[in-house]
Amino acid sequence: MGQGKDKNSDQTPHHAGHRERLRARFMETGGDGLADYELLELLLFRAIPRRDVKPLAKQLISRFGSFADVISADPNSLRQMVNSENVVRELKIVQAAALRLSKAAVIGRPVLSSWSAMIDYCHAAMAFEKREQFRILFLDRKNVLIADEVQQQGTIDHAPVYPREVIRRGMELSASALILVHNHPSGDPTPSRQDIEMTKQIAAAGLPLGITLHDHVIIGRGNSASFRQLGLL
C-alpha cells in the first residue's frame, strides 16, 4: 500500500486565503464596503507577512477608535501595542501620504473657492493631535495659498499665540490675508473666550498693514467651527 500524503505537508496557513480574498475585494470595490479593521489589515499584511493580522487590526481599532485614529496615533502608543517597528512605519507612511494628498488639493489654489478641501486638509493635519497646535495659512492678493506654517504647539488645551509675531511673519511672506487654524484636542470646536480675544487682536494688528484676517477655524474631531460663520469676525 502506498503511504498516505501528509495533510500538513503542503497545507497553506488559513489566513493566506483570507488575505487574497480581502485584496480581491479591495480591488473590486476600491475600499468601499470594507470595515475599518479590514482596511487596516491590508496595511498590516505588508508589515507582518506571515501571521494572521485580523486580531491585531481589531485590537488597534478597539484601542484607538477608527482607521484614521490608528494611523494618526502617537508612534510610542502604537509601539506599546504592536511591538513592531515595521507596523509603526507602514502606518506613518500612510498618514504622511494622506496628508500630502490633502495638501495637494489646496496648495497653489484660491483657498476661498476650495474651502471644503482646505478644511479636509486641516482636519487631516490636526484633528488627531493630542496637543493644541496653531497653524497659519498665508494668502496672496488672489487668495492663493502661498505658505502653511505651524507657528505654535502647546499643551493639551493651550498654544501660546503672539499677534505681533503672526503679523510680522505675514509681512515677511508678503501675504495679503491670513486664515488662522487651531485644533481642540478635546474634540469640541467651540471657541473659547481666549480664542475670541486673540482673534480680535490679530485682526486689529493686521488691518493698518494691509493684512486681512479672513477667518479663524477651530478643528474638532469630526467637525469644525468658523469664526466668520459664527459672526465672531
Layout of secondary structure:
Blueprint: H1 14-29, H2 36-47, H3 54-64, H4 67-72, H5 75-82, H6 85-104, H7 115-126, E1 133-139, E2 145-153, H8 163-172, E3 177-183, H9 193-206, E4 212-219, E5 224-226
Parallel strand pairs: 3-4
Antiparallel strand pairs: 1-2, 1-3, 4-5
Helix pairs in contact: 1-2, 2-3, 2-6, 5-6, 6-7, 8-9
Question: Cα distance, first to last residue?
Answer: 90 Å
Roughly how many Å is the radius of gyration? 23 Å
Number of domains: 2
Task: Indicate the structural class.
Answer: alpha+beta
Task: Give the % helix.
Answer: 40-55%
Using the coordinates shown, work out and report the CATH topology of the largest domain: Cytidine Deaminase, domain 2
The CATH architecture term of the largest domain is: 3-Layer(aba) Sandwich
Contiguous runs where pLDDT drops below 50 for at least 5 residues: 1-10
Strand order of the largest sheet: 2-1-3-4-5
Order of helices and strands: HHHHHHHEEHEHEE
Q: What's the name of the CATH homologous superfamily of the largest domain? A: Cytidine Deaminase, domain 2
Name the average pLDDT.
86
